[in-house]
Request: fold
Amino acid sequence: MIQLKILDEKEICKIYEEHVKIDFPPEELKPLPMILTLKKQEIYCCYGLYDNEEFVAYAFFAKPETIDYLLHDYLAVCKNYRSKRYGSRFLKLLQKELKDYQGILFEVESGVDSKTEKEKQICERRIAFYLRNGLTKTKINIKLFGVDMILLYLKIQGLPSEKTMSEALNHIYDLVFGEETHRREIFCRIVEE
Reply:
């Protein structure tokens, strides 16, 4: 039976050490103490996906109570369970679990900065996965600590304007990183086509 579970501090620490640090490059990792502090401040939440008690996937989000949007931080299926549709099922369960929110913002590497063709293909596959699973590509581009990102949106209750999403994103950045770091290291812009 597939089950979604809110992770406690001990589980977060274990998953961070055994999975997050392996699944994501070092430059994308928030320090564990920062994650735990944000969770204690109630502006961060972490979920695990279990199949018959087996841990198969995880998702970490910034979730300020002051706005109706969450910001995806990490989402991954554990190595031995990839390509078995757990990622798709996880996204559907998260939409049901997080039903009180308007939607989830996903920063995803655009692939523009890729140093190799393999890196570029990984970015393209990740974007394609999210689009196949109901996320919408927005017109918002982000330069996040020097990395080019695009913003995807997972609708839960509504599809807001790009301006509303950009404002929500900037508000979350202020809370998570602090206003000074945000203004110095993160740039959001709506690309008019």
Q: What stands out?
A: The longest helix spans residues 117-132. Residues 2-190 form a domain with the Aminopeptidase fold (CATH 3.40.630.30). The first strand starts at residue 2 and ends at 6. The radius of gyration is 16 Å.
